[in-house]
Write a structure and sequence with these properties.
Helices cover about 0% and strands about 45% of the residues. It is built from no helices and nine strands.
Length: about 110
């Protein structure tokens, strides 16, 4: 499978997630304070809540509803009530364009 263009890198503000849908998979695109772009499953595993509406801090994305924090690099929940990880997808940046391959899951265990 080929990666899909999801946005321009310039469209992603630092610590301000952007929700995209690729191949019927909701993904939160996040640029952390170091400028690294991450693609993480957008749906909190505790409830059907969009993580892109949450808060980015210290390499995590926090669900606004119940406060579960997920690592951007592994998808693992660091705080309850969520205990299941969200998937993390490979991001490619080419000429300022951000691409995500929903079939290239880096972490989800």
């Amino acid at each position: 499978m080929m990666a899909t263009r999801v946005c321009a890198e310039s469209e992603i503000a630092v610590d301000s997630p952007l929700r995209v849908v690729v191949d019927d998979v909701a993904i939160a695109i996040v640029k952390d304070s170091a400028g690294t772009v991450h693609a993480i499953g957008d749906t909190c595993t505790h409830g059907d809540i969009s993580l892109a509406e949450g808060f980015v801090e210290d390499g995590t994305l926090e669900c606004w509803a119940h406060g579960s924090r997920f690592e951007l690099t592994t998808g693992k929940p660091l705080t309850l009530p969520a205990y299941e990880p969200v998937p993390v997808f490979r991001v490619q940046i080419d000429n300022g364009e951000v691409y995500v391959d929903t079939h290239d899951v880096l972490a989800s265990n």
